[in-house]
């Protein structure tokens, strides 16, 4: 039975790194990177998405070979979401749909309802997708019984309207909300993120997570407003694509396992550390359990609670 399911866009990416390295036809998307991040900690992970018709068979084969359930992946009639991922620095990148790409938001309608086999999952991650679809999924998942753990990430690129997220009432439907620091600045106009995280964690009873890129993450505990900073692990970085999504998957796996919040953030940090060492979600290492446990110990040891 699927224990964790991720919901969102699968993509086929052409990645251009600042080094000049170019990778063509890399399977990606937040739904895949988050599934791979969760799969490092949980053996029963599935994906709910659609893949473009020209790529469907190969994409499903590659994902299944990673040990991820593909029962929730449908076939799109078009090419699916085809992106250029253009890295301008280690932290700044653009996602640009190709001329041959399907409409991103239109793919949300093709995904269809949650497969029956996923409805009893203990945890769900709402990966980047159209805002209307994100919010509808949050409402639908929060109504499931027994109520699952639900985490949510967003996308604020130019090809979607992120304004729908400004009203934070949807936080009452999710267990943890996980935007990036840049998204908090851009969408909610917050010059200082710590008071904003505390205010909304207490107001909505929702864990608030700010992804800080190379500086790690800032996690605010639901209801109490306790802030924890977990630095990124020092590893050899090849490609930062999908690091934040992988973090979300590891974090969700920790919540589903009932781990303390700092440990959840450390698990996300470990998942992200393996992601950035590779180019592409499916190239991410499957680490030896002892090596993974060592990284987790280092990440937990570096975590610190910030003063109130």
Automatic annotation (TrEMBL):
Name the Gene3D superfamilies on file. Answer: 3.40.1190.20
Q: What is this protein's name?
A: Ribokinase
Q: What class of enzyme is it?
A: transferase
Spell out the PANTHER family in the cross-references: RIBOKINASE (PTHR10584:SF166), SUGAR KINASE (PTHR10584)
Task: Give the EC number.
Answer: 2.7.1.15
Q: Where is the signal peptide?
A: none
**Alphabetical list of InterPro entries matching this protein:** Carboh/pur_kinase_PfkB_CS (IPR002173), PfkB_dom (IPR011611), Ribokinase-like (IPR029056)
User: What keyword terms does UniProt attach to this protein?
Assistant: Kinase, Transferase
Return the PROSITE patterns for the record: PFKB_KINASES_2
A molecular function annotated in GO for this UniProt entry is: ribokinase activity
Q: Name one Pfam family in it.
A: PfkB
Organism of origin: Labrys monachus
Domain named Carbohydrate kinase PfkB is located at 133-283
Per the record's keyword annotation, is Transferase included, yes or no?
Answer: yes
Q: Which SUPFAM superfamilies match?
A: Ribokinase-like (SSF53613)
Specify the domain of life of the species encoding this protein.
Bacteria
């Amino acid at each position: 039975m699927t224990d964790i399911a991720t919901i969102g866009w699968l993509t086929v990416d052409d990645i251009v790194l600042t080094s000049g390295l170019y990778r063509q036809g890399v399977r990606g998307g937040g739904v895949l990177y988050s599934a791979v991040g969760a799969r490092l900690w949980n053996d029963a992970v599935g994906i709910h998405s659609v893949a473009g018709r020209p790529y469907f068979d190969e994409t499903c084969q590659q994902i299944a070979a990673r040990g991820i359930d593909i029962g929730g992946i449908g076939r799109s009639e078009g090419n699916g979401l085809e992106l250029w991922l253009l890295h301008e620095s280690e932290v700044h990148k653009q996602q640009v749909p190709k001329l041959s790409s399907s409409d991103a938001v239109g793919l949300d309608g093709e995904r269809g309802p949650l497969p029956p086999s996923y409805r009893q999952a203990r945890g769900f991650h709402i990966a980047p997708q159209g805002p209307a679809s994100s919010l509808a999924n949050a409402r639908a998942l929060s109504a499931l019984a027994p109520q699952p753990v639900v985490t949510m990430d967003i996308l604020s690129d130019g090809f979607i309207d992120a304004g729908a997220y400004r009203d934070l009432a949807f936080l009452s439907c999710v267990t943890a909300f996980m935007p990036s620091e840049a998204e908090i600045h851009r969408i909610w106009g917050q010059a200082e993120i710590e008071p904003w995280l505390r205010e909304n964690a207490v107001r909505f009873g929702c864990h608030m997570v700010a992804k800080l890129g190379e500086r790690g993450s800032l996690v605010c505990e639901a209801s109490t407003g306790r802030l924890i900073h977990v630095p990124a692990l020092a590893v050899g970085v090849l490609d930062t694509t999908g690091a934040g999504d992988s973090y979300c998957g590891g974090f969700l796996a920790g919540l589903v396992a009932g781990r303390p919040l700092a440990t959840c953030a450390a698990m996300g940090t470990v998942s992200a550390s393996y992601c950035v060492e590779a180019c592409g979600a499916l190239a991410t290492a499957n680490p030896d359990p002892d090596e993974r446990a060592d990284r987790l110990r280092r990440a937990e040891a570096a975590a610190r609670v910030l003063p109130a």
